[in-house]
Amino acid sequence: MQGRIMFVAGAAVGYVLGARAGRRRYEQIKSAADRIWNDRNVQKGVGTAVDSVQGFVKEQAPKVEDAVVGQAKKVASKVKKSPAEDEPTPSI
Fold this sequence. Notes:
The protein is mostly helical and about 90 residues long. The protein has one domain. The protein contains three helices and no strands. The longest helix has about 40 residues, at about 40-80. The radius of gyration is 28 Å and the shape is flat.
């Protein structure tokens, strides 16, 4: 219960402080974030990171596929007909 009260109190304080800062401050922060994101060096770093991740995924995809297929085969071999299915259904 105390955790919920702290969360609500924190949310209320955040709301009040955010409301006091107002739209102008929000626009300033958003503008600064846009400038940083659209910076040539940042985009170069993002491109490098994307390329690295894509390369890693391409390398690991066959291993993941083999692991998934292997586990699926294990599960499929363990699945058996349940004993309840062998019993006849009672007629009314």
